[in-house]
Amino acid sequence: MSGKLSGRRILVTGAASGMGAGIARLFAAEGAALALLDRNGEGVAQVARDLGQPGWTCDVADRAGVGAVVAQAGDRLGGLDGLVNAAGILDITPFVDLDPASWDRMFAVNVTGAFNVVKAALPLLAEAQAATIVNIASVSALMPMPGTAGYSASKAALAMFTKSIAMDLGPRIRANSICPGVIRTEMTRYLWENPEHSARAAERVALKRLGEVDHVARAALFLSCDDSAFTTGTELPVDGGFSWR
Ligand SMILES: NC(=O)c1ccc[n+]([C@@H]2O[C@H](COP(=O)([O-])OP(=O)(O)OC[C@H]3O[C@@H](n4cnc5c(N)ncnc54)[C@H](O)[C@@H]3O)[C@@H](O)[C@H]2O)c1
């Protein structure tokens, strides 16, 4: 199959839903061979069936589990050329009420989860001709918003982790993060299902609308193929004009 990702083997986390699933769909259409991972077993199995690609049930915070899945994925695909870390969780709670366990979990999934996947995949990526790592951070990595101390700190850590590994792993491996604004997925259903909240969120951005999964998937495609061959260590906002204000 020809396409921008023809011949590339890419592991996508968070592939059962939202951006991870949308990225998997676009990447499959662009000719990639995929390994799909999510802690939601039923969800990832469904996407895997739809796309005819292998899927695994795994919690990215479980280092041993991630190691096992990455090894199996590498065997199945004959190596790995890229990763997209889209698995993530959000807890919006005013700091005074933020449960320390929720803080720990956001770091375990949003930061250490990506670390676990990159670390496990590194020997495989190191063998690839032009490997790519794309981490889905957030505009919350770039700007404060009420009630997001834990989430924002975890996403800022993820973005700086990405920049740091871009330095350490170049020139063979490129690493970039995407910083989405409000995108219509399960994670933000509470917001976009409410017309008043949705309109207020849209009003805050230059393009006056919420983002769709495909906007992020297209950015992930750019960063996972040769179109971005000289781009590494960046934080690409896909936010309709929000984080620069
Ligand atoms: N939706 C937005 O507006 C928005 C904005 C900025 C950043 N993000 C980030 O984008 C990424 C994708 O989110 P989404 O909006 O598609 O949400 P989503 O809830 O639709 O999808 C997230 C997926 O990650 C999986 N997941 C969660 N924890 C996991 C774990 N420990 N191990 C494995 N899989 C796990 C979930 O099962 C789910 O399938 C997340 O990292 C999120 O923080 C989302």
CATH T-level topology: Rossmann fold
Gross CATH architecture = 3-Layer(aba) Sandwich
DSSP strand tally? 7
Bound molecules: nicotinamide-adenine-dinucleotide
Structural shape: globular
Mean pLDDT: 97
> H/E series, N to C?
EHEHEHEHEHEHHHE
CATH superfamily descriptor: NAD(P)-binding Rossmann-like Domain
Return the CATH class.
Alpha Beta
The helix fraction, in percent, is 40-55%
**In terms of per-residue confidence, which ranges show pLDDT below 50 for 5 or more consecutive residues?**
none
Write a structural description:
The protein is an alpha/beta fold and 245 residues long. Helices cover 46% and strands 15% of the residues. It has helices spanning 18-29, 41-51, 63-77, 100-127, 149-169, 189-192, 195-203, 213-224, and strands spanning 9-13, 33-38, 55-57, 82-85, 131-136, 173-180, 235-238. Strand 5, helix 5 and strand 6 form a beta-alpha-beta unit. It is globular. 50% of the residues are buried. Bound molecules: nicotinamide-adenine-dinucleotide. Residues 13-14, 16-20, 38-40, 43, 59-61, 86-90, 109, 113, 136, 138, 180, 182-183, 185-188 line the site of nicotinamide-adenine-dinucleotide. The site of nicotinamide-adenine-dinucleotide has 30 residues, from helix 1 and helix 4.
